[in-house]
Amino acid sequence: MIKKIAVVLTVMVAFLALLPLTGVLADDEGGETAYRFDPATQTSRALEYKNTWEGYNLYKSNCKSCHFRGNERGARYLNEDSRTMRGWNTVFYKKDVRCAKDGAWAKLSSEELMYVNDYLYSKAYDTWDPRSAKSCG
Ligand code: HEC
Fold first, then answer.
1. Predicted confidence band at 59 (pLDDT cuts at 50, 70, 90)?
2. CATH topology for the 35-127 domain
């Protein structure tokens, strides 16, 4: 009888010990989350799909509206990989590019600019990783 209780207890302890582990594994499904340290707010931002999707749309409608190839607004052609991850952070932290200074960014709230920064950071020049599928195109 005592032996039986001991076995049951051992199984229970083992189960409880593994419980947190199963939680972590469940969270990890679908790949790891990347983070961006934002120098302006001194916070770490998770590059979740909702942030980068929001950023992508804002970038297309508010930045690409000028920075497309052959535009007549005097804006150089810009792409996601025109800057490194750090380079994009600097653009949004310092805001010392001409369009940021002359008010072309004024339509966007600081929260929206953060999304654009998240998106561009996630696609920056130095995010290329030979071990990931991203290298295929
Ligand atoms: C109204 C047009 C306009 C809009 C909108 C605009 N820009 Fe610009 N941007 C310019 C012009 C003009 C310059 C100065 C010429 C140049 O260097 O391309 C410039 C310069 C820049 C530069 C420096 C270019 C370089 O390669 O050094 C960056 C980076 C930049 N813009 C990013 C952005 C981002 C990010 C957005 C969206 C949040 C944006 N711009 C929206 C017109 C615009």
1. very high
2. Cytochrome Bc1 Complex; Chain D, domain 2 (1.10.760)
